[in-house]
Here is the input.
Amino acid sequence: MTDRAAIITGASSGIGLEIARVLGQEGHRLTIAARRPDKLEAAAEQLRAEGFEVLAVAGALQDEDAVARVVSEHRERYGRLDVLVNNAGVGSGAAVADIDTKRLDLQLGLNLRSTILFYREAVGLLREAGRQHRSALVVNTASITAKLGKPGLSVYAATKAGIVNWTASMHQELSAEGIKSTALCPGYVDTPMTDHAKGRVAAEAMMTPSDIAESVRFLLRVSPACCVPEIPFVRPGDPTA
Ligand SMILES: NC(=O)c1ccc[n+]([C@@H]2O[C@H](COP(=O)([O-])OP(=O)(O)OC[C@H]3O[C@@H](n4cnc5c(N)ncnc54)[C@H](OP(=O)(O)O)[C@@H]3O)[C@@H](O)[C@H]2O)c1
Here is the structure.
C-alpha cells in the first residue's frame, strides 16, 4: 500500500499522533493537521524521523477555510486520499446552567461541524480511492460518552453522539461506493485531554493511545466486504468511561 495517503486531524498529540504512526507504518504518506503550529511541527519531525513522509498543516479546524486548506494542500502534495481521520476535538465541562456560549460553539464547531465539512471537502478524493480499491476509510473519533451521556460534560457528549449518528449516515450513504466510515468510542485514554481527570483516575488505569490506534490497523486489514460502523473501548470494571 505504499502509494496511499491519509489525513489525520488532531495529530499533534495523543490518539491522533498514534493513529498517524500506525498509518505511516501501514504505508501511507501523511498529512497531519492541528491547531498550534510548533506542537504540530514537533510531531511531524518525530514521524519523519521514523521514516514517514509528512505534510503538516496548522489551523483552527472549526474554521471552514482551514478545513478546505488542509484538504487542498493534501491534494496538491499527494493527489489521492485513502484514509481520513477526523480526530481533533475538545471537551469543556460545565453544569447546564453554566454553559458558556463560546465553549459551546467551539465544541459544536470542532467536534461535529468540522467533521461534516471534512467529508464534504474530501468526498471526491475518497470516491476515487473507493473506485480503485473499495476500501477508502474515514475514521471519526467519538467517545463512549456518545452512547451514555455524561453529567457535567453534556455538550461534549452531545457532539460525540452527533458524530456516531453522522458516521452511521455516512456508512449508509457512501459504503456502497467503497468508502467505509467508523466511529471510535473510547472511555478514558491517557492523553493531555484527560490530565484534568488524573486525580480521580490514575493514568495507568486509563487506556493508551496505542490501544485506540491499533483499531485503525485492523480497519485497514479487513476485506472490502467488511464494514465496522462503530467500536466502543471501555476499561475493566467501568463500562461508562
Ligand atoms: N483522551 C480521552 O480519554 C478521549 C476519550 C474519548 C474520545 N477522545 C477524543 O479523542 C480525540 C483526540 O483527543 P486526545 O485525547 O488524543 O487529546 P489531545 O492529545 O489533547 O489531542 C487533541 C488534538 O486536537 C487538536 N486540536 C484541539 N483543538 C483544535 C482546534 N481548534 N483546531 C485544530 N486542532 C485542534 C490538538 O492540537 P493543539 O494541542 O494544538 O490544540 C491535538 O492535536 C478528541 O476528539 C477527543 O474528544 C478522547
Observations:
- Residues 101-133 form the longest helix (33 residues).
- The pocket of NAP is lined by residues 10-16, 34-36, 39, 60-62, 87-91, 110, 141, 143, 186, 188-189, 191-194 (CB under 6 Å).
- The chain has a mean pLDDT of 97.
- The chain has one domain: 4-228.
